[in-house]
């Protein structure tokens, strides 16, 4: 019963991240700021997520994880309440920053708690279940914000998200068992989850030691490259659709819903597949994403192909998420800081990918160019993931030889 509560929390956090895009004109007019200034409500949130994922997880390293999750959602509720009441742009931005502080740590720590709620062989599916809320929010976020904002004003949207956060907070407090939030040996604890955490109360030094592992850094790098390639292209899809494929601006919303539906499908399929063969799933997903971006770049002028390919972009792009999180946390011995670092890596990748996509557009290569740049970035991620998988197989063979030597 704890997984739906975690998913609801992810849904609320996802709404907060995505909903502002559809409300930006209203907010700018209401708070009398320029569109460029209002844009910091998006970029400020993303930067806070990238930094806060590490900082907040490190600051709570000595605490049991269930109370930390409850506290993070309390912070989330406070931030959205502040946004709903904001009399000025500065207060609104502060509310966005406060809400963003919980984002990375909630998904990082929550993914570890989710793993403990199921048998080890279902670990990636449990993570996918938690992230299902985020993927659904990606589909519904912009239209939800636009609908509520148009009918009752933009503040009503943040009131609604505040209520969702409060319900999720109560759900986690009531439905998540105490042992799942302490890293103990409760039934269904995931393999490696909580390892080296002294019953879930790891000190910061113990968590930092996990980053001596080459597998941790390789997985974080593959995450950043995978996300960077996908979101570098995604950042300019509206222009690709309208300037290259010839769609109208009103078509962009439903095309983004097609993309978001792909995220939901990819998340579920990726979690199930990763529980069978995690590294193979990650390699196939990243290779599929590379191919999708490259083909999309070639066929960007075709409306029919664009609809199919934007769906596949979501499928392959998010199929990596459950496996990457379980992989990095297993490599790190189950410490929460590694899971949160994975969220930070994805946001760093997003920023770098969007920057690279903007460069090629500014250089005059056209609005399909970010798709080719994205394909190149993800291809590098395939290489990094290939090295990580090869090293993992080599390590397992070496451990097997040592084990046979001891028992022979």
User: What is the arithmetic mean of pLDDT?
Assistant: 84
C-alpha geometry: globular
Pick out the low-confidence regions. Answer: 184-202
User: Regarding quaternary structure, how should these chains be classified?
Assistant: single chain
Order of helices and strands: HHHHHHHHHHHHHHHHH
Strand content: under 5%
Instruction: Give me the number of helical elements.
Output: 17
Strand-pairing-aware structural class: mainly alpha
User: What is the helix fraction of residues, given as a range?
Assistant: over 70%
Euclidean distance between termini CA atoms:
46 Å
Question: What gyration radius follows from the Cα positions, in whole Å?
Answer: 21 Å
Number of separate strands? 0
Biggest sheet details:
none
What does it look like?
- 81% of the residues lie in helices and 0% in strands.
- The radius of gyration is 21 Å and the shape is globular.
- It has 408 residues and is mainly α.
- Residues 184-202 have low confidence and may be disordered.
- α10 runs antiparallel to α15 (321-331).
List the helices and strands and how they pair.
Elements (H helix, E strand, L loop, with lengths): L1 H29 L4 H4 L1 H20 L5 H21 L3 H13 L1 H14 L6 H30 L1 H22 L28 H6 L4 H21 L2 H9 L6 H25 L1 H21 L4 H17 L1 H11 L4 H27 L6 H39 L1
Helix pairs in contact: 1-3, 1-5, 1-6, 1-7, 1-8, 3-5, 3-6, 3-16, 4-5, 4-6, 4-8, 6-7, 6-16, 7-8, 7-12, 7-15, 10-13, 10-15, 10-16, 10-17, 12-13, 12-14, 13-14, 13-17, 15-16, 16-17
